[in-house]
Amino acid sequence: MTLYQGVQKRAQAEIDRVVGGNRLPDFSDFDDLPYLEAMIKELLRWNAPTPLGTSHAVMEDDVYEGWFIPAGTTLLENIW
Amino acid sequence: MVNSYHNLTSHPPSLHHRGIFHDETVYPDSHAFNPGRFLTEDGKIDPSVPDPEQRVFGSGRRLVLTVSTKSPCFLTGITTGFARVDSSQSRLCLSPLRGFLPSSTFYLRWMRTGGLGFPWRSSRKTLSGTQKRHIPRYHNQSILFYPILFEQPSCAVRLHRETSIREVGDAYRGGVGEVFIR
């Protein structure tokens, strides 16, 4: 948000418009905050906290798109 | 065997030449921070753009259940923070504290010390062993949270790729024996 202050100002303006500035936002407001939701999504996408996701293990032999993956292989999901 | 190469068990295969969130075919100009990519022209959430929530909290049977973009953690945290942050657009800021609040540089350095001690000294060196273990390892990211992972080998929730975290959580907390979400 330090780098993208225009985004922050726009999200703040949206909150101020919906909430009115006299109270804090609550759950009933979230459906009216699409830009904020998009901003959160972008935050997660742009720099994911865990670039390799959570590792998984294959429990049985598998073939995925022509790749044979033997059982027990650790799979790292590159969500970067 | 992968393309006539042997793939040893327990070796993590590197299948991806490009990431998911920086796939230019899905997210054009992926290195730009542009929340508008998730919005339609009239400012609504565009459901055709893949939701990073589906990936960033894990996929398959190991998920961060308690954290999602629809969870109190994210929404109240971020919206409340934005509503209170010191800015000319916000009237909720505690005005007596204006000018007395530490600068953003202070916070950044403070976070680097693990939120303990004084940022102008290298407090990490002065901590005892027990305290050191409790210093959370923050990434240099915009969002900090403690993921709570769960692993249930016997969990009978079979996931489809598009299953949302909330659906899984509901099914799991509902104690249903066999749940197949499609």
Give a written overview of the molecule:
The complex is a heterodimer of chains A (80) and B (182). Chain A is of the alpha+beta class. Chain A is 35% helix and 12% strand. In chain A, the strands form 2 sheets. A two-stranded antiparallel ribbon of chain A has the order 1-4. Helix content of chain B is 24%, strand content 2%. Chain B has helices spanning 53-56, 72-84, 104-112, 123-126, 129-133, 165-173; strands at residues 157-158, 179-180. Chain B is built from 6 helices and 2 strands. Chain B is extended and about 60 Å long. At the A-B interface, helix 1, helix 2, strand 3 and strand 4 of A face helix 1 and helix 2 of B.
Key features?
heterodimer, A: 80 residues, 4 strands, B: 182 residues, mainly alpha, 6 helices, extended, disordered C terminus
Largest sheet of chain B: 2 strands, parallel
* H-E order of chain B: HHHHHEHE
Please state the CA-atom Rg of chain A, rounded to the nearest Å.
Answer: 20 Å
Number of domains of chain A: 2
Number of strands of chain B: 2
H/E series of chain A? HHEEEE
What are the low-pLDDT stretches of chain B, counting only 5+ consecutive residues below 50?
1-17, 86-101, 119-124, 131-163, 171-182
| Helix vs. strand class of chain A | alpha+beta
- Give the number of helices of chain A: 2
Low-confidence stretches of chain A: none
Query: Largest interface, and how many residues on either side?
Result: A-B, 58 and 66 residues
Tally the beta strands of chain A: 4
Strand order of the largest sheet of chain B: 1-2
Chain-averaged pLDDT of chain A: 81
Overall pLDDT of chain B: 54
Distance between the termini of chain B: 31 Å
Measured distance between first and last alpha carbons of chain A: 20 Å
Largest sheet of chain A: 2 strands, antiparallel
